Known about the structure:
Blueprint: H1 2-25, H2 30-41, H3 51-72, H4 75-80, H5 82-106, H6 111-122, H7 126-136, H8 142-168, H9 177-212, H10 215-235, H11 240-251, H12 257-281, H13 285-290, H14 292-316, H15 321-330, H16 336-347, H17 353-375, H18 377-388, E1 407-410, H19 414-425, E2 430-434, H20 437-445, E3 450-452, H21 458-463, E4 471-474, H22 479-492, E5 497-502, H23 508-514, E6 518-521, H24 522-537, H25 542-554, E7 575-580, H26 597-600, E8 603-609, E9 612-615, E10 628-633, H27 635-647
Parallel strand pairs: 1-2, 1-4, 2-3, 4-5, 5-6
Antiparallel strand pairs: 7-10, 8-9, 8-10
Helix pairs in contact: 1-2, 2-12, 3-10, 3-11, 3-12, 5-6, 5-8, 5-14, 6-8, 6-16, 7-8, 7-17, 8-9, 8-15, 8-16, 9-10, 9-11, 10-11, 14-15, 14-17, 15-18, 16-17, 24-25
Amino acid sequence: MEHGFLIQVLLMLLIAIVAIALLRRIGLPAILAYLLTGVVSGPSGFHWFTQQQMQSVAELGVVLLMFTLGLEFSVPRLWAMRRTVFGLGSAQVIVTTVLTMLVALACGLNGIESLVIGAAIALSSTAIVLKLLNEQGWLRRRHGELSVSVLLFQDLAVVPLLILLPLLGQNDEPLMLAAIALALLKGILAFFLLMALGKWALPRLFDEVARSRSNELFVLSTLVVALVTGAFTQWLGLSMALGAFMAGMLLGESQYRRQLEADIRPFRDLLMGLFFISIGMMLDFALVMQFWWQILLILLAVVVGKALIVHGLLRLVGEPFRIAISTALSLAQVGEFSFVVLALAVSYGLLSNQLSTMLVMVAVLSMSIAPWLVRHSVDIAKWLLGIRQSGHVDEVVPIITEDHDLVVILGYGRVGQTIARFLKTEAVPYLVLDLDPTRVSEARRAGEPIYFGDVCKRAILKQVGIKHAKMIVITFCETRSLEEALPLCKQLAPDAKILVRTRDDSELDMLQKAGANQVIPETLEGSLMLVSQVLHQCGVPLARILKRLESERRNHYQFLHGFFSGTETDFTLESLHAVLLHRGADAVGKQVADIDWELLRVELRAIRRSGAEVEHPAQDWVFRAGDILLIVGKPRRLEKAEAKLLHG
């Protein structure tokens, strides 16, 4: 019997591994894989386990999740973002909850069921949205900051829900305001007791643990703190997750925060996986097939409704249309804490199995489409904005009078605007094209010579009179747009100098072949500016510094390639490698010209002999024993070149 149980556990874990691997391949979150595992191994599938068998272990996953969530909460950070967190965040949660409750009441559900459903629908997925915003590099953008603020308040809103749900489950006595007040009083009491304990005892405890230099003791102490505080709040009649959250929040300000988070993450991820597997076991596919059209209808209502609510609130406080749409689409799904709310509601008898199954399925489907919505939120917003403002944006650019000193700036972001300011100061005529309607409208009102238009379209470039331009500056870095715009500019303005801004020089040769007269890689230029300041402070004459910088630019930043690799080696980049020629080395006695460097596909950068370094030695240089050769190339080519130089 025990062996059979172990085999069932192993099979369930195997299904989880396969499901995670497959869903990650198609860009879906791991949560869906755990839910699928629960469906397969639960009552709707092989019936290896029941939801009740998994519940006690799975609840620990929620406890550890709330502990790590508490670690992320910083009181100064919350205070700095208080307007958007507590203003926009609270408005989104309250409005969504109330509207969902009204719809649920209209459908014949009672007040408690409506409140639970409204709270579950109001929450969005912190894990999915933050991960995708980080991958896209949008966390610092306005719509990313607004999304994070709303998610922070939603996570905070889970705390009163954890207090309220056990009270709602007390069906044997009427739910009175006094009971809620007592629970809140207990929560405040628990917070102050844990605050006192956290400020006095926890730092000393972890100081002692850290001095022991035992990783096992640190991990064990972290788990014990999370579970003991959870047990304390449960003893007060509240939930374990609430105590764990408070403990995490207290330790979030300590110097051990990162270590605590790293230590507890494996246990949290494993137990949260079991929690979502237990949620999947709640799914009854017979009910899903029976109510499939209702589920799809609710899904559509949830996604569209949440998006409209967030968009409406943001427009109400004056956010631009594009920002409001991007934020709304990013928050349109149902979150992982919704599963926590639904699971607790079922365990307290607040929701029927049929209703919880439908809502879990809606949550699963909304999280399935969330990655696509978040990744394309900006594109959808631009598309909708183009339709909305098609009558307001001047897409037809007037023909510019012939001016042979004209500078055309393509892209009016931060770089484009900086260039324009300096050109204006020097009274150099310029004209700008940009595809952001809001930015164009703002700049036009300020009197800037800017027009709305796609720089990848020949007609637009002709209308601005690009053939008369003395110089064309392309300030955006999107590779696909560059590949389209650059040949057009070269074809329509063959005599103009074309300057292109890029992030690095990975496509420098390609861009120059496409027609760019000069490519400015901002990361390398930043390095050169820092070098120039260092040399200047060291007393090197300014003329010599400028000459050296210009030499680097003329030689395609050759000196800025090839560096000694560290632990994290990128095998796609060139590295600098030192080869010591011992007495029996094959290269000793040979000249530089005797080595076929092109066949080896590496470059001989310099030779060090007797403490002196000779850059780019002559072809008749004869190698001696003790010479150190500095060669540049891809790591695998360097290995072959070293073997050739030493062993022939």
